[in-house]
Design goal:
Blueprint lengths: L5 E6 L2 E6 L3 H4 L11 H20 L6 H12 L5 E2 H7 L4 H13 L3 E5 L7 E5 L1 H22 L7 H20 L22
Antiparallel strand pairs: 1-2, 3-5, 4-5
Helix pairs in contact: 2-6, 3-6, 4-5
């Protein structure tokens, strides 16, 4: 059994245990409890970030997803995004974005404009009130990001974000593969065949 050194680190109002890595830990299987595991780390980081941001912007009446939608629409303001374009840009699903767009339109943050070529589609645009709300929340978002990234040395922050972007791209690529491409294989390299009891 491997002994782990532990370090206590204060993060907002929570204390977390950060295990020290060792050469012995790197020889363990990827899913060994003694190792850092990608799904748990990504979920923990996303959940913590989302909760921290949600609490900091609660007084504005905007949700983290609404802020992301406003930022994405501003970044594509010239051509204007369709709802499906927003879905892709936000790496979300159509139902979530449809509900989000409906709430933002009712809240007076965005408007729909008829698409010039596709009669079934609309371009989404931020209204002046949406732009003002975005600027208000943006200051809070920047302060939070700066606060969180200060956990890393300044020279490592951009490298960390680049690595995280590569992992994100790999996750999207894995999600896009067909289920047959992801089927397990046995130790001899032949496709694994599930046996089912009916």
């Amino acid at each position: 059994m491997m002994r782990l050194g532990r370090t206590w680190r204060r993060s907002f109002s929570l204390y977390t245990i950060v295990p020290r890595t060792s050469a012995k830990a790197n020889k363990l299987p990827v899913d060994a409890p003694e190792r850092r595991r990608l799904p748990i780390l990504l979920r923990r980081a996303w959940y913590g970030l989302n909760q921290a941001f949600r609490r900091r912007i609660a007084h504005t009446g905007v949700t983290p997803d609404q802020f992301t939608a406003m930022r994405t629409l501003l970044e594509h303001e010239g051509e204007g995004l369709t709802q499906s374009g927003l879905t892709k840009s936000m790496a979300s699903d159509p139902n979530t974005i449809a509900s989000l767009v409906e709430r933002m339109e009712k809240g007076g943050l965005i408007r729909r404009e008829k698409h010039e070529k596709d009669r079934r589609a609309y371009r989404l645009r931020l209204k002046p009130a949406g732009k003002l709300k975005y600027e208000e929340v943006r200051e809070i978002a920047l302060a939070l990001q700066t606060d969180l990234l200060s956990a890393l040395p300044e020279g490592k922050r951009e490298e960390f974000l680049q690595c995280l972007s590569k992992v994100g791209d790999a996750c999207v690529a894995a999600a896009g593969r067909t289920s047959s491409a992801l089927r397990p294989v046995d130790t001899k390299g032949a496709p694994f065949v599930e046996s089912r009891v009916l």
